[in-house]
Amino acid sequence: YPSLAGRPVVISGGASGIGESMVRQFAAQGSKVGFVDIAVPAGEKLAAELSEAGHTVRFAPCDVTDIDAYRSAIADFARAHGDALVLVNNAAHDQRHDWSDVTSAYWDDRMAVNLKHAFFAMQAVAPGMIRAGRGSIINLSSISWMIMTPQLPLYETAKAAAHGLTRSMARELGKSGIRVNTLSPGATVTPRQIELWYTETTMAAIEAQQALAGNVYPDDVTRMALFLAADDSAMISAQQFLVDGGWANT
Ligand code: NAD
């Protein structure tokens, strides 16, 4: 994707899993990548590795639920590398919970990590994109709000809302040349998921649900993100794209 070369890209939750794949792949396209994460040693290690390899990659330790801190990190990146023309709202945390135990504070906490920061990051990058007359925003959602897995009501509510946010902001920002899309991975094999519950048995069970053989890996998701970020998708906005091996729609 030649249009991504030199393009400033901001990614949240870039220190592991799908976000890490995105940091690596955008860097490989020649983009200038800024990413934030609470996983500080992992973020620093990734940024150092890619910088040593000659890429422009900057890591800022930041909890995206601290909206002011996240705004500052986005502003610092813009001062150093230019206004973000691509934003990937990727950070999330899918903790299982029983609906009957949910407190008001827990609700706020889950919405903050899985939804709220995405809106405020858009608000932070939009002025620069408006000045440039172009931009692409990608909100990570999930297959899970379409198939509804057990014990994830708050995560699934946030992920459903993420697509609502996509559609609404696509309307708000579209005439300024800014596109907003939702990218919904299926069950994706990341180090954290392997640690949590992926075994050969669960991965085979997931595969059995999909239309396609095999499992989804982070780079499969990232390839769609690159397309949505690049000028190749210039007339695509307000859409949801599933990279799920054909699970949810079969
Ligand atoms: P992951 O847990 O491997 O990585 C998420 C990253 O976000 C981590 O590095 C984590 O430290 C960071 N993070 C979490 N809370 C943060 C906070 N408050 N501030 C800053 N950083 C924070 O997750 P993943 O599996 O790579 O998922 C990436 C995205 O894809 C998420 O939006 C997730 O909901 C979505 N998704 C993943 C799957 C899957 O199967 N892996 C499926 C559907 C959707």
UniProtKB/TrEMBL annotation:
<comment type="similarity">
    <text>Belongs to the short-chain dehydrogenases/reductases (SDR) family.</text>
</comment>
<keyword id="KW-0560">Oxidoreductase</keyword>
<dbReference type="Pfam" id="PF13561">
    <property type="entry name" value="adh_short_C2"/>
</dbReference>
<dbReference type="InterPro" id="IPR002347">
    <property type="entry name" value="SDR_fam"/>
</dbReference>
<dbReference type="InterPro" id="IPR036291">
    <property type="entry name" value="NAD(P)-bd_dom_sf"/>
</dbReference>
<protein>
    <submittedName>
        <fullName>SDR family oxidoreductase</fullName>
    </submittedName>
</protein>
